[in-house]
Design a protein that fits this description.
Layout (H helix, E strand, L loop, with lengths): L1 H27 L3 H38 L25 E3 L2 E3 L14 E6 L2 E5 L2 E4 L8 E3 L4 E7 L18 E8 L2 E8 L11 E2 L4 E4 L10 E8 L7 E2 L24 H11 L4 H15 L19 H11 L6 H13 L4 H8 L4 H13 L3 H4 L3 H14 L4
Length: 401
Amino acid sequence: MEEEKNNQEQNNNSINNITSTAFGLLKKFGSSKFKIILIIVGAGIILLALILLLLFGTVFMILDSEKSSTNGNLAFSQIGDNSGFWWPVGSNETTTENGVTFASGQPAITSISSYFQANRCLGGTCRPHYGFDVGSNGKIGVYNLIAIKSGTVIKAFNGCADNGSLNNNCGGQLGNYVTIDHGNGYYSRYQHMAQNSITVKVGDTVQQGQVIGKIGKSGRCTGAHLHFQIHVGGTSNSFAVDPLTYVDPNDPRPTASGNIIVGNNVMQTVCLTLKQEGYPDTGVAAALGNLKRESEFNLDAVNERDCRGIVQWCDTRKNELLSRYGANWTKLENQLEMMIDELNSAYYSSTKKSMLSNDSLDSKTYVFCMKFEIPGASECNSGIRQQNARQLLSYVQNGCK
C-alpha cells in the first residue's frame, strides 16, 4: 500500500509539472490567438500524459501481481474426474439410475481383432490404424458400448445403415460414431456403431460406465466391430495414441479410491495411479526411478534439509505439503494427491509434457529430475536415476507387478 501511495504521488507531481509548463507558455504569449492554440495543445498534452500514466500503472500492477503469485505457495489447477479408464465394451446386464442406463459390469467381450499400428493393409490399401478393433462375432446392435470415463460428448453421428464395406464413406468412413472429451486433453472415439443405437448427443455430460450405443457395422468396415481410439491433446488422428496405454482388457474396471488406485505397497500404488492418470509406461518408470532415488518410497522420509515425503518436497513445496495436510502429511493418498496436482499445474507443465512424449526413457528421467525434483545437474547426470527407471520399466509394463 505504501508503494502504491508513493507511485500515486509521483504521478500527481508529473501532471502538475506538465500543467505548470502549459500555463507558463500562456503567460509568454499574450495574444488571444496564441492563447487559444496553447490551451488546446496543453489540454492535449495533459490528456495524453494521463492516458500514458494510467496505462503504465496498470501494466506494472499486473506484473507485480503475477510476480507475487509465483512466490510462496503454488496455486494448483483443479483436476477433473480421475477415475481409471474403463474398457469401452460394457456388460450385457444394465442398470438404470435417474433415467441413465449403465452397463458397468464385466465386459461382454474383450478380444482384440486388430491392434494400433503404423501401417495396416486392408482391401489392397495400406494406412495407419489409429486404434484397436473389438469384433462382435457378426452381431449387430447387441453389445453395449460405454463411456470409458466421465466427460462431455463433442461429436455424434447417427445416420449410417449397418451395411459397411470398403467403399462405404458414410460418416466420413467412420460410420456412426461418438467422440467424448474427458478433460485434461483426453478424448475417446467409438466408430462403426449400430444404426439408431446412439443414446447421446453433442453437449451431453456422460458418466463412466454409461451406455452410449452398441457395436454395429456402419461406414468403411468389412464386419461388425468396434473401432476404438484415444487421443491426447486434440481430436484429429495425429493425436491418436495406442489405447492399450490407457485401457486394459485384463483389468477392464480398475477400482479407484478417490483419485488413488490402491496397490499392495507404496510403489505399486504410485505406479497404478500414474498409469490411470494417463501417463505411458516410460513416463511412469521415469517418475518411479526418481522417487526411488529420492526416498525409496518412504512416506516418512526427512533429509538434512528437512525435505519430506516420497518426492522430498523442500522449502515452499514442503510448506505447501504441511499447510495442506498438517500432521497427515505422511499419508500416501495425501502425498500422491499433491504430486498429481503439481504435475497438472502450469508450473510443472514441462515435466508432464516430457512424461507424455515419445522421448526416450533416459530423457524423461532426466527431465523429471531437473524440472520436478530439482537436485541439480550433477545428480541428474549421474545415471543412477536412469538405471533405476530402466530396471523398473518391465515392472510398469507388467501392470505394476
